[in-house]
Amino acid sequence: MRLIPRLLLSLLALAPLALSAAPAATAATDLQEGRDYELIAQPGPFQPLAGKIEVAEVFGYTCSHCAHFEPQLVAWVAKLPKDVRFTPVPAAFGGPWDTWAAAYYAADQLGVAKRSHSAVFKALHEDRSLPMQNVSPEELATFYAQYGVKEPAYVAALKSDAVQAKVKAAREFALRTKTPGTPTLIINGQYLVKGTSAADQLRIASALIARARNGKAR
Questions:
Q1: Is 0.70 topped by the overall pTM?
Q2: Helix, strand, or coil here: 214?
């Protein structure tokens, strides 16, 4: 009869050791190139770092994986330290990808991208209130009107040279970093995050942020 209490005491004694060992999986030193991340051959951030660590997410509004990733990503980004800057980079892979990249940058130019970002995913993947392909400038303008944007102003921004230049920059970034698909996280334009799940990507990204902070080259 005394064996059971002794066994419980042994398990309780070991529990703190197991808990303290768990975070080791996220340590920067535990990462393995090729499995957890790829080093970018032509490194460079999407935007000047200005003393920050950049986390760029290459995403696509029409990408179902991005839509599923979004809630976890939002929660993770909200907890990032002050020295980390999160930068959404719409994937401009051609065709409808370019259209939605321009849609994002037009919203960004008018100051409503952050407020509307998750809602665009919802409109496309849940409500089906916006078409995946062949969305018109007028349909986009009507959608963004709910955020206080005048429809003519949105259409003008969508067709502006400034927005097209940003789409071009996003396309060049994806090409230079050899972004394989969406969603993809890139740390400081140096590390391309891999991973087997959304949670795994975020775990690896957190460890790579720590590595970038420590100035490690590998």
A1: yes
A2: helix
Sheet holding 53-59, edge to edge: 37-39, 191-193, 184-187, 53-59, 84-90
- Chain-centroid distance of CA 176 in Å reads 17
For residue range 178-208, what is the model confidence (pLDDT) as tens digits?
Answer: 999 999 999 999 999 999 999 999 999 999 9
C-alpha–C-alpha distance, residues 51 and 87, integer Å: 15
Q: What is the mean pLDDT of the segment spanning 55-82?
A: 98
- 26 confidence band (pLDDT: 50, 70, 90): low
SS3 for 98-125 is HHHHHHHHHHHHCCCHHHHHHHHHHHHH
Single out the residue of 145, 134, 150 nearest to residue 99, CA to CA.
134
Instruction: Name residue, tokens 């071009």.
Output: 168
Alpha helices in 126-176 (DSSP H): 137-144, 151-158, 161-176
* Torsion sign (Cα): 52, 89, 165, 148: negative
With tokens 């018109």, the residue in question is: 136
Confidence of residue 29 (pLDDT cuts 50, 70, 90): confident
Q: Which residues pair with 53 in a beta bridge?
A: 84
Token pair listed for 144: 């963004």
